[in-house]
## 1
Amino acid sequence: RVEMADTVGAQSTDSVVHSGQAESESERERHWKAVRGNPDDFSGWTQLLQAVDGEEELTGAREAYDAFFERFPYCYGYWKKYADLELKKGSIETALKVYRRGVKAIPLSIDLWLHYIEFCQQYIYHSSTDSHAVENQRRVNDA
């Protein structure tokens, strides 16, 4: 009986997790449908990005940000948000790639360059004697 109760509890917990994932997916799909219907709706895009920022999985966020930047490449603040998301849920290397794409897309954005330089100072070149910093610098240079 105890085993059965544990199994039932696990199933109900599992269904709650799947329910939350399904709700998140449906919200994401609702926002995708809106931006596909009106791809020039900046507000729709920002709502989509906000929805995917809260998800655990990065794949949906990457897809949304990449599509957003095809339409709105000059929004430096969103390049920073994307890099921050990659740093939080991805890696230093993927965050660096986002910054590099951003400064390539808008090379005259002083604000984005400042964030990029600050990022490099903090995560890549912070301490050349620190073994982690040396390893980060080597991996970034290889990227």
Note: The chain has seven helices and no strands.
## 2
Amino acid sequence: MPAVDEIQESEKLFVPRGRHKIEIVKSTTDVSLAPNYTLPEVAFIGTSNVGKSSLIKALFNKVPNIERSRLVRVSSTPGHTKTMNFFQVGQAFSLVDMPGYGINQPQSFVEMVEGYLKNRKK
């Protein structure tokens, strides 16, 4: 279990400041058009309406005007996310909000996610 000081230090990753910006970089259904990072990347993949976008929004809750900026879109409608949404968290890492599978999954879901999993740099 992480110590309190480790948790506080990790929370700083999700607070924009100076050159440490948190921003959406690209939304796409084609992995070949995804940003070319050298940063570690974390992808959130799961069933529709499980809370992937809500989790990312919670992580980014210190971003000013997150509600108005629509940096992360959430909906109570299953299958709202239709694209891979790439976010850059400063120079630390990137996050990918993937569409869910199951209810209202996009037609291109299999090609999109398999393409990501097979072709994205490790």
Note: The first strand starts at residue 22 and ends at 28.
